[in-house]
Amino acid sequence: MLYQTTLVKAAISDAVQLTAIMKKTFDYEAEKWLSNRDTIDFNIQPPGYTSIEMTTYMIRELEYFKVMYDGILVGGIIATLSGKAYGRIDRIFIDPDYQGKGIGSSVINSIEKEFPYVRVWDLETSSRQLNNHHFYKKMGYVATFEGEEEYCFVKHIKQPVQLESVIKNQNFSHQQFENSDLSHSEYYHVTMEGSSVSNSNVSHIHMSNCNLSHSKFQNINYRNTMFADLNLSESEFIYVTLGGARFKDSNLGDKASPLTFERCDLTGSKLVNCDLKHVEIEKSDITGMKIDNIPVEDLLHLYYQSSKQ
């Protein structure tokens, strides 16, 4: 009997089940490819793959589809669409119990049909996962980078001539654009190193999978902006207005370098379900501050009283 594989847009109510399947799948891959379980390989076990909160975020903000096989939920595929023409497969996972049935091939074909105007798809996989290399090449992907830790693949899908409006392989370096309309433009695999943008309207811009290291953002209006799945290690925030800002499901990275807040007004802020081991607070106004609804001033008062006895 030939069973049908279909993609269905994931809903928040699917988060628990999808997270469980993702964990099962990536742990299975780790068992197969990581001889030393202390080895960190984010392509095999991506950040947040066991987190229901991360799954919820991805369902809400990305193109997240659940994979149905004969009506049974067996996996998922997550894609990021940049503009209309460029897509990135962030994650694809199939329950190990259902692998080897051609489901993965069907899922790749289905996601391409779901977004027919995407003409470039890219993805990354671990250098260790040799079966993935063969699979993606079979699906028409070409390796663009082969490193010790990671392989990068890309697939170009030919579009009808009337839909092609691409400027390719041109050198516009050291040019100056003034009073120009670049709205709704799309940039893929371009080098903008050392470029400057000032006095410009770049609202509603969408940047994904970009290298912004050593950049400077000064005098910028970021109101109602979302920052997600970012590496901000060793970054510096100076004279920043954070009213109403929310930090969720974040960590201190591999080196666990501590955060530092100096001369910051955090009045009324709230920390919920956070790991605060070894956190230090010095020379700060803690009026009204509470821990588990107990005023810190009362706790300190009791501490100082007992220390005098």
Named at the architecture level, the CATH assignment of the largest domain is 3-Layer(aba) Sandwich
Helix content: 10-25%
Q: How far is it from the N-terminal to the C-terminal residue, by CA?
A: 81 Å
What is the CA-atom radius of gyration, in angstroms?
Answer: 24 Å
CATH class of the largest domain: Alpha Beta
Strand content: 15-25%
State the CATH superfamily name of the largest domain: Gcn5-related N-acetyltransferase (GNAT)
Overall number of domains: 2
Shape: globular
> Which residue ranges are poorly predicted, with pLDDT under 50 across at least 5 consecutive positions?
none
| Classification by helices and strands | alpha+beta
Major sheet: size, sense and barrel closure?
7 strands, mixed
Describe this structure in words.
It is a single chain. By secondary structure, the chain is an alpha+beta fold. It has 2 domains: 5-160, Aminopeptidase (3-Layer(aba) Sandwich), CATH 3.40.630.30; 231-309, no CATH class. It has helices at 15-33, 52-61, 103-114, 130-138, 296-308; strands spanning 5-9, 63-69, 72-82, 86-94, 120-126, 142-146, 150-156, 290-291, 294-295. Helix 1 (15-33) crosses helix 2. The longest helix has 19 residues, at 15-33.
Question: Which key terms come to mind for this protein?
Answer:
seven-stranded mixed beta sheet, 9 strands, 18% strand, 2 domains, Aminopeptidase, 309 residues
